[in-house]
Amino acid sequence: MNRAGVEDFLFYEAELLDAWETEQWATLYTEDALYEVTSPACEDPAGADARNTLFLISDRIDRIRGRATRLTKKTAHAEYPRSKTRHMITNVRVTGGEGDETKARANFAVFRTKEDTSTIYMGEALFTLVETANGVRIRHKRCTLDLNSLYNQGRLTIIL
Amino acid sequence: MALYDPVREELVKADPEKGSFRVHRNAYRSAEVFEQEKQQIFAKCWLYIGHDTELKKKGDFHARRVGGRDLIFIRDKKGEVRAHYNTCTHRAAKVCRERTGNARNFTCPYHGWVFSSEGNLVSQNAQTGYAEGINADKHLDLRSVDRLEQYRGFWFVNYNPKAISLYDYLDGARDQIDALMDQTEGQQIILSGEHTYSIRANYKLLCENSYDGYHLFPVHASYFDYLRDQMVGTPGEGLIDKTLATYNSAGCARSLGNGHAVLDSFVPTGRPVAQWLPSMGADTKDEIEARYANLVSRMGEERAKYIAECQKNLVIFPNLVINDILSVTVRIIEPESENKIRVTAWAMGPDDESEQLRALRLDNFVSFLGPAGFGSPDDIEMLEICQDAADHTPIEWSEISKGFGKAEDPLYAEGAPDDEIQMQAYWTMWDRVMRGIDTLETR
Ligand code: FES
Ligand SMILES: [Fe+2]
To answer: How far is CA B110 from CA B92, B107, B114, B134, B169, in A?
Structure first.
């Protein structure tokens, strides 16, 4: 994929998230997908491995779907009333890939407003995208945060 | 404004005959009460600072705020663990500006005084001007906390030089720490990585929540839905509802003395030590079962069963939480004001477990716990709506009566998992320490 193709796809993902179409969002992930957010204090966020260090999020497909479904429920108290979000995706770069795979990186800033409080999650996302018969899918998405803690944000209950 | 007077004001009202236990909401929302807590609770109780395994090598340190005081938790170059105040004895600057690292010395960035890892002043960065022997009495060495003691690697500080020993303070909580540390023949260690976040709520609201069996079904309904969905079509299907049906009768809440308490319960999440469930994957089955067999041989059947199968939510008064549940978390609650806390949490696990089991342990952790899990954020939302409502309504009392009145002494009581006897123990201790009835000092 070229940069424009990656951008279009990431903008589409962002659009689904801002519209709270979380279950539709989950369909963008492959069966062997991994969606991760490293801990803010992580020393090596690009190289870290959730199998031996504590992440904020490390979801395989079951939990990607579980997260998407949970967020549609009123009993997901942390997101009730649901927050407003705006995903900004910039500085998209295609960094490699072979065959049907494309590796890409993008900067992101996600604004979240819950009741009267607005906070920002900013950082870089590392993607492995794959072109399938059904369209582009995400095999791996790792978000690394330019934060030292979630002191200002409190928690991370939206999808980045 | 006069400081709140803990002797005259009654914030905790207990009437065992009526089975009534109430806490005045000023205990959660009053800035004056919080000021008093800094002097009565946080300057007198043992406060957790960190685990021995976080200081692997000589010189390893962590800068931590404990009970509102900035400390350097360090293993000095001789190997001794210390807790220095992070302030220069010259004119106050922080001598350590990193959150973590390894150091032989700390050089104050302001005028260049140098302190050794033991805290000794080794240079004043000046050729002239100081009288000979100005530090003969050591008053210019880094100041250390009055008391620093450990139990099985859990280091605590106490700002009262006359405090009772940590060993006595922990009382029945020692047995819970033993149950955790005895999970392995090897060593329980703090694993890599941490979660740090904030909550807009009083610290005691999080303590209450951490071992509250009563909130499980309303607050965590979406988590149980998720567990059920995961088990559809597996041998574990049906297990979840079967176990949950006996939740209120299978375990218990127990107070352990000095305000500490534990919730023992049974929730079918599986436990890396040492209860295997199909949802944990076939590749960990043998190891988990071998760990269980090892527990039986070391500890006997009954204790092994308790260690392996029982989910334990422990609160050590006033602000340390150790949840030994689907994963083990050690969580410090650092109060910043009457309605704001900073939470730092770590995962703990045996150093001799396989890569697969370690991965499973961490996966369990993030599935439920932490600021992005499927459980803790819903708890946090509850705490914030409790705080907001208490702050902005005139209602005076919260009712914490469930299961109250059966035991002679609330500090050593037992009740059903969804009772509130653990909170009654906490608040009884809180009230006694606030009023100075219990000084926690050696006589
Ligand atoms: S304040 Fe540290 S050397 Fe002056
Ligand atoms: Fe909870």
So the answer is: 9, 9, 11, 20, 40
The amino acid at A12: Y
Q: Is B292 on the interface with A (CB under 8 A)?
A: no
Between strands A29-37 and A135-145, the pairing is parallel
Report the SS3 class of residue B427: helix
Query: Under a CB-based contact definition with an 8 Å cutoff, are residues B81 and B150 in contact?
Result: yes
Residue B321 CA to residue B215 CA, distance in Å, equals: 17
Listed as ranges, residues in chain B with pLDDT below 50 are 1
Superfamily of domain B47-158 in CATH is: Rieske [2Fe-2S] iron-sulphur domain (2.102.10.10)
Check CB contact of B226 with chain A, cutoff 8 Å. yes
Q: In the prediction, which pLDDT does B121 show?
A: 98
Query: What's the rounded mean pLDDT across residues A39-57?
Result: 96
Q: Which ligand is nearest to the CA of B214?
A: 2
pLDDT of residue B237: 79
**Could you read off the pLDDT of B1-33 as tens digits, one per residue?**
456 777 777 999 999 999 999 999 999 999 999
Q: Which residue of B has its CA nearest to A114?
A: B381
Cα B188 to averaged position of ligand 2 atoms, centre (Å): 25
Q: What is the spatial distance between Cα B70 and Cα B139, in angstroms, rounded to a whole number?
A: 19
For residue B52, the 8-state DSSP code is G
Burial classification of residue B228, based on how many CB atoms lie within 10 Å of its CB (0-12 exposed, 13-18 middle, 19 or more buried)? middle
Residues with CB under 6 A from ligand 1: B 88, 90-93, 108, 110-113
List A90's β-bridge partners, or say none.
A107
Interface test with B, best of A58, A77, A116 (most B CBs within 10 A): A77
pLDDT value for B390: 98
Give how far Cα B149 sits from Cα of B50, B175, B190, B368, Å.
11, 17, 18, 32
Handedness of CA A43, A48, A50, A51 (dihedral sign): negative
CATH class of B172-434: alpha beta
Residues of chain B with Cβ-Cβ distance to A148 below 8 Å are: 99, 196
Torsion angle defined by CA atoms of residues B381, B385, B386 and B392, in that order, rounded to the nearest 10 degrees: 160
Could you give the C-alpha distances from B207 to B10, B201, B295, B313, B373, in angstroms and in order?
21, 11, 30, 10, 19
Measure the CA–CA gap between B422 and B312, rounded to whole angstroms: 13
In chain B, list all ranges with CATH 3.90.380.10.
172-434
Grouping H, G, I as helix, E, B as strand and the rest as coil, residue B190 is strand
User: pLDDT tens, A77-126?
Assistant: 999 999 999 999 999 999 999 999 999 999 999 999 999 999 999 999 99
Dist CA B160 CA A127 (whole Å): 53
CATH 3.40.50.720 fits A3-145, yes or no: no
* Atom 3 of ligand 1: nearest residue by CA position: B111
Domain ranges of chain A: 3-145
Residue range(s) of every CATH 2.102.10.10 domain in chain B: 47-158
